[in-house]
Amino acid sequence: MNELKRNVPSNTALSVNCFYTALLQPIYVTKTLIQVGYEPLPPVYKPRSLTRFVFYEGYYYPSLLEYIKYLKQKNGSYLVLYRGLAPRITSVFVTTTVKNELLAMLPKTSSRCPPEQIAHEVGRQCVATSGAVLMSHPFFVITNRMIVSLIGGEAKYGSLTGSIRTIYMEEGVTGFYDGLMPHLLSELLTVSTETLFKEITEKFELQRKIESLLGHSLNVMFIATSALNSIMVYPIQLTAVITSVSSARLAVSDIPSMQGTTQGWINCFRGLWRSGNTKRGNNLWMYRRANSESYFTPPGKGRQTTL
Q1: What whole-number distance in Å separates Cα of residue 71 and Cα of residue 115?
Q2: 244 exposure class (CB count in 10 Å sphere: 0-12, 13-18, 19+)
Q3: Strands 288-289 and 58-61
Q4: Is the dihedral angle over the CA atoms 207, 210, 215, 221 positive or is it negative?
Q5: Contact at 8 Å (CB) between 218 and 179?
Q6: What values do phi and psi take at 58, rounded to 5?
Q7: Res. 221: pLDDT tops 80
Q8: Contact by Cβ (8 Å): 1, 8
Q9: Which of 189, 196, 264, 270 is a good FRET partner for 179, with 20 to 30 A between their CA atoms?
């Protein structure tokens, strides 16, 4: 009975995670396609005006909703926006279960020294996260490959079982671990910084002190981790997605932005850095600026070129 009661909160959290994963799958599908550089809709010119004062003059790719509408029109159904949902939910299940079990096995520190307590908890979380990523990464690869197969319409990645068979036949077991290093590194950076900020905030009561100083509530940990994720972690997450599909024999490999990504994740990261694409797909709710120098010239300022 005690074991059953102990597992109720974790089972509830797992159900909630799976529900939100299914709910947000259309956004994940769109984001993944943008991350690999798939831009089927041409950018449109938007001059700087009163209604768009936050933008610079130039060409911008269509919004997230327009991208979703295009995917529906191309494939004839909104069901396409749930491509890869089965392996992604499986990944969430494996990640949550393995991490919770490992955390239950790893002992907590008996030290009363705050720095030692913080360091020990960060270590526990990193070990548990490493085990969870190693177990769930094959489903991460399958999810991304099922999604990018929409670009060329390849049927071999049309289902979970078909994807497993295709990867094993074409690449062997190692194919299931393409992009593992950047995926693991990004997850470790995320969990270590989140745990570090959480422990410091709780141990030294920073939340209460900052709120009393400012006179209103402020989620310090959320702001700090979000800023760090955007600056430091997201480029590595982007590299993980790209390298997880770069060696697959799919049409996505013909996209110009994917050239050179099969030469290792470090070279992939360097390529993204040199081309200024480390934030590609980071903010889907804003218009995404296109490289106007490479693609277009503004109306009335010269001849418009083609993609």
Answers
A1: 50
A2: buried
A3: antiparallel
A4: negative
A5: no
A6: 160, -165
A7: no
A8: no
A9: 196
Buried b (16+ CB within 10 A) or exposed e, 204-226: eeeeeeeeeeeeeeeebbeebbe
Collapse the DSSP code of 169 into the 3-class scheme (helix H, G, I; strand E, B; otherwise coil) and give the result.
helix
CA count, 13 A, side-chain hemisphere, 165: 8
The region that residue 302 occupies, defined by phi over 0 for left and psi between -120 and 50 for alpha, beta otherwise, is left
Instruction: Tell which residue, 296, 187, 300, 161, has the closest CA to residue 241.
Output: 187
Determine the residue type at 287. Answer: Y
Classified as helix, coil or strand, 36 is: coil
The encoded tokens of residue 72 equal 């529906």
pLDDT digits (tens, 9 = 90+) for 83-104: 999 999 999 999 999 999 999 9
Other Cβ atoms within 10 Å of 235 Cβ, number: 20
Residue 250 and residue 224 in contact, taking contact as beta carbons nearer than 8 Å:
no
Identify the burial level of 18 via C-beta atoms within 10 angstroms of its C-beta, where 0-12 means exposed, 13-18 middle and 19 or more buried: middle
Give the Cβ contact number of residue 281 at 10 Å: 19
| Residue 146 to residue 83: CA distance in whole angstroms | 7
- Both tokens assigned to 164: 């497993």
Q: What is the pLDDT of residues 178-201, one digit of tens each?
A: 999 999 999 999 999 888 888 877
Check: CB of residue 22 under 8 Å from CB of residue 29.
no
